[in-house]
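haha ok so turns out i had the wrong file open the whole time. this is the CORRECT one, sorry everyone. sequence first:
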Amino acid sequence: MVKDLTNGSIPKHLISFAIPIVLGNLFQLTYNAVDSIVVGKFAGDNSLAAVGTANPVMNIVILGVTGVCIGASVLMSQFFGAGDEEKLKKEVSTTLVFGGIFSLIMVILGLACSKLILSLMKTPGEILDIAAVYLRIIFLGMPFTYLYNAMASAMRSVGDSKTPIQFLAASSVLNIILDCLFVAVFRWEAVGAGVATVLSQAVSALLCVWYVYRKVPLLQLRPGELKMDRELLRLTLQHGSITALQQSCQPIGKLLIQGKINTLGISAMAAFNAVNRVDDFAFTPEQSISHAMMTFIAQNRGARKMDRVKKGFRDGLLVEFGYWVIICVVILLFRRPIMNLFSSGEGSSMMELGVQYLGLMAFFYLLPAFTNGIQGFFRGMGNMKITLISTIIQISVRVVFVYILVPAIGMTGVAYASLIGWVCMLAAEVPYYFVFMKKQERQS
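then structure:
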């Protein structure tokens, strides 16, 4: 359903837009955990290791896809808010045509280079062939991955965050069913997991296309309209490439942090793996609220309603704060039972390390709530450079302080390093916000 975010209650718009994204992303996190359980239980350690080894490669490619689609979504939202249907359709067309070319290139490169890439990653010989086959299957699904992200971005840009998430949830359930069928029943091992993933991605993408051509005339393209506008492509890639670079900073930083954690022994490694899962469930809703703010601000920017942009930013930060209060209370009350899910027994060193970490992070999660909100604002305003710069500052400072603090105080040093990184990020973003808004006022 198309929803104009340039009129009506701002908090209601932000919350109703964010909730489906939050639920969908949490569902996806749950699916990822179940997928690993099925592969590990029924296909064995080699298949689980093969899938785990291949996933970082695909994650980097998907960062490129989502980066381009976020850039496209900002432009689509802006055109929709301005009431410029012609430019909106041109942007949708440009995004889809470019995506078709990009996906074809990635399929060819993936089929040709999967084994080489995995070899360069020092993948053990006993799982190299399994991992290469799995990765090639996943690359074959790249057109569907791009198509889903592009269509979901288009629907969100016109105010519909529920439908793409419903299709994602349906495809995730299908993926679990197919995993059980192909891996547990047919015993196709990692190959079965790859086929299940591609088929479920295809379903989610095709459902989006089907829905748009039944319910959303504003986004429907006819064969003669499938063209690529060079100027819009330039703007899309300008926004998207910066976003993709920004998103890639986090996994690179995590790899460096993991290297330092590995020096603390098995208990710390296991605890860090467990608390990372908890971090994901804490951060994802904050990022979802940020996406809602981005779309709201981009639409109202397009409509030249700067008062609503300012109010939307303020109310968005209040929503982020409200979420933090909830997650802080939940983590403080249940951090021990949560860690017990990952632990072999009460009182284990792994469990105690995790409980200490979460006891600190429950309070520290407030800062990424604000940084995500600020990043949503700047993306909606089309200013991607500050989001990249501030993210580089945050992750660089965090890594440096991990290497300083972890040898001295152990794993809690990671929590304090995260705190310092977020403080530095806010120190860069907050003053820049006031400079940026003064510039906007002079131009208006």
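The mean pLDDT is 87.
again sry for the mixup
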